[in-house]
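Re: the 282-residue chain
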Amino acid sequence: MGAEEKTMTQFQELSVAEALDLARNSSAFRGDFTDWLMSEITCDNPRIFRARVPPVKMHRKIGPIKFKTRLSFSLSTREGVRLRFQDAAKIPATSTLEDLGDEAVVMVVEAAPADGVGIGVDASGAGRIIEGNVAQGLSGKSIFIWTFKVIDPAEMVGWYDPGQLAQTAVNVAISTIFGRNADYRATEALSKPDPDDEAGDVGAREPTASGVFDYNSGESLWIDYVADTGDGWDSTYAVAYQVAQPQLQIAGASEPLPRGKCLSLAVMKSTRFPVDRFIVSG
């Protein structure tokens, strides 16, 4: 397979309706960028192709200092070609990644030359993220869309860092003081339903008047408990992925285990990896 054929196999061809839906609903397209793309899609009956690019880190690190990633764009020809990234109205030479989330590079080719159009996008610190020769052999107008996510993965927690150790010691001291002086009877009273309250509709999962979900009818209740959410980007993602599955096939179990109705997380907060924010905001 030649380089051109390999490049084109990375693309999924979209219908006009699918392309318009992408332009309207993807957060990669904002403001004038959305209006421009929609006008290109609905003009001159183009063929539209989309490729997904692996995530790009928002920052690159040189020693202890972080720098925002800069993208550099190159084309083999600019004749009959329109390239856009974010809200730039002209073909960009460079652009800095400023926000997390979805981004897209769009190239419109009015009439491709016989040997196609070469494109390259380089990310500082990561190398080339988009490369290829496209539109070769295509007649008429064509649109190529590359979408990717901008991420900012936190570093692994250094549990023996002085700052981390100091924060952990303070948290342990506070927890010990409050735990030693807390009256557990008050906590238990809050979780105990009032005998005079009528049980809610178990099937509808409605709570009683005191806010308690009553499962006394005998219906099974599955609870997921995560003892360790991980202390780095990869490990926390792996835990969150498994928790989100509708069911899990466990070695030795006769049937898959269903996802719990309730999820309990044991989170150890750190100064370097905000695992609580990562789990909640996903």
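The helical segments are 3-9, 16-25, 32-41, 162-181, 184-191, 233-244, 275-281.
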